[in-house]
Amino acid sequence: MASVTQADALEKGPTRLVGACVLIDAAWRIVGHRLGLSGRELAIVRGVFDDKIEMTMAADLGIAPRTVHSHLERLYHKLDINSRAQLVLRVMQESLTLMAAGPPGGTPQICAGPGVGHLPLRLREQADVSAPSRGGKGSKRG
């Protein structure tokens, strides 16, 4: 078994969304390809996004926990990183680069439940509050 798919996560409801759901399946494949990841390495990365421990990933993938550990070590070396947190940041950096580039090839989407492709309302509200004002009345542009 691989990581939970976006459809599986949505079926369980918005409170059950998992980390790997941050990108649609097609976007995962694109990001994986751009980072030079094998299918197995991509499954391990998705497990990290789901905050799974090595033992759980091993059971899901039908491999030994030591093999999962070896895959993680090789991922760290391949991506020149040292931790799970850096792995998540590196993958998100790549997905944001793809979003900025836009079509062709499809843009990775953010999984937001029923409105797939859009930020969840609470994230949108936070973005609106924290976003700096661009122009408008009283704006000093030189």
The whole-angstrom Rg is: 17 Å
Q: Count every helix, treating DSSP H or I runs of 4 or more residues as helices.
A: 7
Q: What's the pLDDT, averaged over the residues?
A: 74
Assign the CATH superfamily: Winged helix-like DNA-binding domain superfamily/Winged helix DNA-binding domain
Helix coverage percent: 55-70%
CATH class: Mainly Alpha
Subunit arrangement of the protein: single chain
Low-confidence stretches: 112-142
Counting DSSP E segments of at least 2 residues, the number of strands comes to 0
Shape: globular
Structural class: mainly alpha
What's the structural domain tally? Answer: 1
Distance between the termini: 57 Å
Relative strand content: under 5%
What's the CATH topology label?
A: Arc Repressor Mutant, subunit A
Q: Spell the H/E element sequence.
A: HHHHHHH
CATH architecture: Orthogonal Bundle
Q: How many strands, which pairing sense, and closed or not: the largest β-sheet? A: none
Can you put this structure into words, describing what you see?
The protein is mainly α. It has a single domain (6-130), classed as Arc Repressor Mutant, subunit A (Orthogonal Bundle). The protein has seven helices and no strands. Helix 2 (25-35) packs across helix 6 (84-101), helix 3 crosses helix 5 and helix 4 packs across helix 5 (65-79). The longest helix is centred in the middle third of the chain and has 18 residues, at 84-101. It is globular, with a radius of gyration of 17 Å. Mean pLDDT is 74; it is low at 112-142.
